[in-house]
């Protein structure tokens, strides 16, 4: 009897050790996607569970089902989405000791908003994949550098993007960053400009960002959806023009350290990674070697 008992205690201990050895992971999907898509987020989760046996994962669903989740990615303001995500994270006891986070595409700037705004368990490492930390100025597959008409299209869209009715109804409009009109962007954009401390400096945002152990930003080399793709590394067009990219370390955001990024850089917390992919591509072998083995083990 005693032996059997000991055996069970032993089993319980083993199971606990295995499941407690990896920090849980919270994931936030991109546009035209859901928490549980078999060929994207669910696949990533399955790979992570294989590489990190027993790891607890939460792929955020914004809405009551995947249909709502998909729709909310287009129509719900990031502020509301983040509140929902915050309550999911806060009500999961398995996340109480902290978690790592992975954002995919627009999920990158949304999960960064979760970090900056949500009082709750600590986010330790933040990994963003093809994110748009500086927003974007352009529409997918329409690169003004190669297709001149695309510049006209984005200029036209810019006349509407900052209307308050559009900002309220289109998630993507809240990522619109017209570098030709920085002042309008700073004052009328209702999400990216706010979380990037463009209007006022919110010290909480700096503190929360700097509480990360690592902030890993993955840019996709052959990106055609995110314009400019450098937004994935927190870089953008130089103010007042829309062709040349200003390196992060030369930008005012960095130099004045309005968001605390300079300090993070000096502390060795910023990691800029280049993946050899187009936007929807994913290669697990590469990802495991360059991201999972380095930052999630
Ligand atoms: C979940 O469903 C309820 C009832 O239909 C609805 O009121 C609510 O808005 C839904 N939640 C989200 C986040 O869409
Ligand atoms: C800063 O952000 C926090 C978290 O979102 C918020 O509660 C607070 O009101 C903000 N402070 C200012 C000055 O905007």
From TrEMBL:
EC number: 3.1.2.22
Catalytic activity: S-hexadecanoyl-L-cysteinyl-[protein] + H2O = L-cysteinyl-[protein] + hexadecanoate + H(+)
One Pfam family, short name: Palm_thioest
Single GO BP term: receptor-mediated endocytosis
Signal peptide region: 1-19
Highest rank taxon of the organism: Eukaryota
Segments crossing the lipid bilayer: none
InterPro entries xrefs: AB_hydrolase_fold, Palm_thioest
Keywords linked to the UniProt accession: Disulfide bond, Glycoprotein, Hydrolase, Signal
GO molecular function: palmitoyl-(protein) hydrolase activity
Gene Ontology CC terms: lysosome
Gene3D superfamilies, per database record: alpha/beta hydrolase (3.40.50.1820)
Entry's family note: Belongs to the palmitoyl-protein thioesterase family.
Protein name: Palmitoyl-protein thioesterase 1
Source organism (scientific name): Ignelater luminosus (Cucubano)
């Amino acid at each position: 009897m005693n032996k059997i008992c000991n055996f069970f205690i032993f089993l319980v201990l083993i199971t606990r050790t295995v499941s407690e050895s990896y920090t849980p992971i919270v994931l936030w999907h991109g546009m035209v996607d859901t928490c549980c898509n078999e060929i994207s987020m669910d696949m990533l989760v399955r790979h992570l569970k294989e590489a990190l046996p027993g790891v607890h994962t939460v792929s955020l669903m914004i809405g009551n089902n995947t249909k709502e989740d998909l729709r909310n990615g287009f129509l719900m303001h990031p502020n509301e989405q983040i509140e929902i995500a915050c309550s999911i994270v806060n009500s999961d006891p398995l996340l109480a000791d902290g978690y790592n986070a992975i954002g995919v595409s627009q999920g990158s700037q949304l999960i960064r908003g979760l970090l900056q705004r949500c009082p709750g368990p600590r986010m330790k490492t933040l990994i963003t994949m093809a994110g748009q930390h500086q927003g974007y100025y352009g529409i997918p597959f329409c690169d003004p550098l190669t297709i001149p008409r695309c510049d006209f299209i984005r200029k036209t869209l810019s006349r509407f993007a900052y209307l308050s009715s559009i900002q309220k109804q289109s998630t993507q409009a809240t990522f619109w960053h017209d570098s030709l009109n920085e002042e309008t962007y700073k004052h009328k954009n209702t999400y990216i400009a706010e979380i990037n401390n463009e209007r006022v400096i919110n010290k909480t945002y700096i503190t929360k960002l700097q509480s990360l152990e690592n902030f890993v930003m993955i840019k996709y080399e052959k990106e055609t959806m995110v314009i400019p793709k450098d937004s994935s590394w927190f870089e953008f067009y130089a103010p007042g023009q829309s062709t040349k990219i200003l390196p992060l370390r030369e930008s005012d955001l960095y130099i004045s350290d309005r968001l605390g990024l300079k300090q993070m850089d000096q502390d060795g917390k910023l990691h800029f990674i280049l993946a050899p992919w187009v936007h929807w591509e994913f290669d697990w072998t590469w990802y495991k070697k360059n991201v999972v083995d380095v930052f999630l083990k």
